[in-house]
Amino acid sequence: MAAESSAGAAVRRMRLGSQGLEVSAQGLGCMGMSAFYGPPKPEADMVALIRHAVRSGVTFLDTSDVYGPFTNEILLGKALEDGMRQKVELATKFGIRYSNGVRDICGDPAYVRAACDASLQRLGVDCIDLYYQHRVDTRVPIEVTMGELKKLVEEGKIKYIGLSEASASTIRRAHAVHPITAVQLEWSLWTRDAEEDIIPTCRELGIGIVAYSPLGRGFFSSGPKILESLSERDFRKTNPRFQPENLETNALIFERVNEMAARKGCTPSQLALAWVHHQGSDVCPIPGTTKIENFNQNVGALSVKLTPQEMAELESYAAAVKGDRYPSGMSTWRNSETPHLSSWKGE
After folding, report:
1. Which of 67, 160, 212, 317 is catalytic?
2. Angle at 181 between CA 179 and CA 185, to 5 degrees
3. Given pLDDT bands bounded at 50, 70 and 90, which one contains residue 329?
4. What is the pLDDT of residues 244-273, one digit of tens each?
5. In what order do the strands lie in the sheet with 283-285?
6. Which residues have CB under 8 Å from 86's CB, separation 6+?
7. Sequence-distant (≥ 6) Cβ neighbours of residue 346 within 8 angstroms
8. Cis (ω within 30 of 0) for the bond into 69?
9. Is the pLDDT of residue 346 over 60?
10. How confident is the model at residue 20, as a pLDDT?
11. Nearest CA-CA partner of 290 in 344, 347, 224, 228
12. Hey, where are the domains in the chain?
């Protein structure tokens, strides 16, 4: 039977990329604690959850300045007080900002530096372990943005550089300026766009892969029932895959995954997460949650073993997924470099 709790389940360590960063083999996406998935959750509860994660061995924490905006970084800063900072690998991001109430993507060097300084202050740290460009600014050559990030590494403000949802060609150009340690992208049983060219490019260059939304934005945790618990402020209310015209088909996918999980003695979320883990030793999924019991269950996925036949069976179920990743109205967040990858971001 798969582990339902983190008690006694060792979280292995892994090398992320080829520049020396070592992280827990599963991370914690912190976005939903503060933004996009309904109202912010109680601060004390989230601090307790983050510290529980670290004590359990999940030490790779993921946030961004746009989550809130800003409030998620402040939350992490509070959770990392009292000596906790030294026990974690801290990742945050820059690049999406609000200008006069309008979402904008910016990779200008002056902005990069100002964003980094502001994140350091909110997080209450003197160095960020992994600093991602959250979205590529197609108006600014990636070499220019990377030049400023390279300076921040040299100054000791950041240790490693990452990109989020960049195209294969941009990854190559960026990596030529300064080694990229990790590329973050949406990768799950039902979101596999990146496998065509982005994943192979990362592997060719020795870049680690961080998979956000590995549970299909929570769908593989409870299936269509998840809609009953979503607040009106939850982004997923507008997600095409959660809409009635697509939900009937997608609910069948969940049923089949659930049936297979029952055969294996694990939960459907553990099974879906295990599928991501089995993509390779260079892949680190970062499922998000706001509940300790769900966190414990996610850690249990590390104990679930899948055969190649079981992997293929799962993929055959999910091949029928209906609906785009994002609503058409979120086009302002789309990454024009990779039109098949919308650019609204969430772990």
Report:
1. 67
2. 125
3. low
4. 999 999 999 999 999 999 999 999 999 999
5. 27-29, 60-62, 89-94, 128-133, 158-164, 182-186, 208-212, 283-285
6. none
7. 29, 31, 32, 36, 37, 212, 213, 217, 235, 288
8. yes
9. no
10. 98
11. 347
12. 13-330
Q: Which residues have C-beta within 8 Å of that of residue 287, sequence separation ≥ 6? A: 26, 28, 29, 214, 215, 269, 273, 298, 347
**315 is written with which tokens?**
């993929």
DSSP state of 33: G
Active site residue 67: yes
- Summarize the confidence of residues 68-75 as an average pLDDT: 97
The strand pair at 128-133 and 89-94 is best described as parallel
- The CATH fold of domain 13-330: TIM Barrel (3.20.20)
Considering only residues 18 and 338, tell me which one the structure prediction assigns the higher pLDDT: 18
Collapse the DSSP code of 269 into the 3-class scheme (helix H, G, I; strand E, B; otherwise coil) and give the result.
helix
Residues 89, 139: Cα–Cα separation, whole Å: 31
Let me know: does 43 contact 333? Beta carbons within 8 Å. no
Q: What is the DSSP secondary-structure string of 297-312?
A: HHHHGGG----HHHHH
